[in-house]
Amino acid sequence: MTPTPDTASYQDDVTAGPGGVMTADVGVITGDLTLRTTLGRDRRTAHVSVQYTGADEWYTLTGSPAPVPDSGLAAYHHRLLDRIRQGGAATAT
Description:
Number of strands: 7
Shape: globular
Number of helices: 1
Distance between the termini: 23 Å
Helix content: 10-25%
Largest sheet: 5 strands, antiparallel
Radius of gyration: 12 Å
């Protein structure tokens, strides 16, 4: 992925660490996941969702929407990937 200043969405596959991620829809999910981070219409919040890699259904990560930090959407997305790799019922905030 090559981020650009006007990129409004990022998506990557990631394997969740022990304890997985916490979703607002179904609770904790674990394993091979796909993370999608999308800039909100207000351009100040990020909507974060996950799915089992290859599945059709998306789940909202607990804490989403979340404020986009000053470092930008791409940096926030990469921090989320790191949190998910660590597991521990990772959330969007």
